[in-house]
Amino acid sequence: MKKNGYAETTIRVWTSTLKILKELGADFSDPETVKEVLTKATCQKINKGKPWSQSRKHIAIASYTLYLRMHGKKWNPPRCKVTRKIPFIPTEQELDSLIAGCGKKTATFLQLLKETGMRSGEANSLSWTELDLQKRILVLNNPEKNGNPRVFNLSLKLVQMLSALPKKNDKIFGNVTRSSLKSGFYKSRKRLSSKLQNPRIKQISFHTFRHWKATTLYHETKDPLYVKEFLGHKKLDTTLLYIQIEKTLYKEQSDEFTVKVAKTREEITGLLEAGFEYVCEKDGLAFFRNRK
């Protein structure tokens, strides 16, 4: 997989999946036993866990197929149809409550995910050389899943949180593994869910922050191409899901606007302070709008 350019995260997940198949009784020299284990894993709970999803089954099939190819063999894999599910989108208040209830490093990590919509692996691999604290700019040069590199403007709050982290090595979050970060995050999430009596908080994962950012960003801009570039997606199809989510979440809001025109600097300042957003400029006039 390394020779063929697979991402480190993909290698780790696929290798781990093969190990689990082996532990569940699959004989890699006999594809039929692999099919039996896959059927069992997707139909009943395994080792006190949940039945495997179709997505996880798909990964298992792909990893075993690659294993056979390495040995010059083939098999007739079972059918597996993966349907993309609608992700859970929490409120911003729920995200902020979770961030506030975590330790310093985890809270900073979550705030970074919230503002940038990065994947957790991308955030965990960031180095101090990619961060300009004075200009409040962060550069992501090593995106995952063959995504595009991105540049982000950070809030003053996040910059202050990042500045408070210890600089013991080149990486912003040190040598801590993503699994270690998740372990601490899950404990804080469970504790806060119980404390706030809000079971929805237990549904929040690292990737939930990316889904939330994409949905709110589309709501603010109504520009799928901008959201696509912000997230680093290669294809627009991947971004279109968030349009559907946005329409559902914000359906109670009207699509009608109050339009205002400004000529002077004072008029422009007044409209911005009143919550109007800038639209365009034409014939020396600045046009603004505000949702009714």
Explain how this protein is built.
Helix 1 packs across helix 3 (54-70) and helix 9 (206-221) crosses helix 12 (241-249). It is built from 13 helices and six strands. The strands form two sheets. Strands 1-2-3 form a three-stranded antiparallel sheet. Strands 4-6-5 form a three-stranded antiparallel sheet, with helices on one face. The longest helix is centred in the middle third of the chain and has 18 residues, at 178-195. The protein is mainly alpha-helical and 292 residues long. It is globular and about 80 Å long. The model has no long low-confidence stretch (mean pLDDT 90). It has three domains: 8-70, no CATH class; 92-249, hpI Integrase, Chain A, CATH 1.10.443; 257-291, no CATH class.
